[in-house]
Amino acid sequence: MFKRFSANYxxxxxxxxxxxxQVALWSAMKLRFVLxxxxxxxxxxxxxxxxxxxxxxxxxxxxxxxxxxxxxxxYTPRRIIRWxxxxxxxxxxxxxxxxxxxxxxxxASTELPRLTFAYFYILVLFGLLGYRSLLRYWHRLRQRQFxxxxxxxxxxxxxx
Length: 160
What we know:
Blueprint: H1 7-34, H2 46-49, H3 55-71, H4 83-107, H5 114-145
Helix pairs in contact: 1-3, 1-5, 3-4, 4-5
């Protein structure tokens, strides 16, 4: 079992964050074709007008987000004890990483659809906040379940 704020728990958060970011980038491109918002973008037109997220973009996005999370001490237990500390830090760092990605895509002249970027931002934000909320709730339930009084026997050199 993972203790809350242990090294294994923080490593699990790092892996789950990285996986969710990759799934959200892939899902954002799929949502761009499915949801009827903005101009119609048919999958046949994609190679001519926009860029499809490639393996290189997935790697860059993963490195950018995880580096930003680590630099902001999102995996340091002392900094994220309370839920509002963790969530406010997560929102700020995620927004900063998204702006960094937007600048990087602009500098590289990569034509990623704007709605895809917006879907990606929203999916990552709500996904990360959602699963971290569920983990906090699960740990709270486990804590209540196992909160029985500890029985300790102290052996000493005096009369009882």
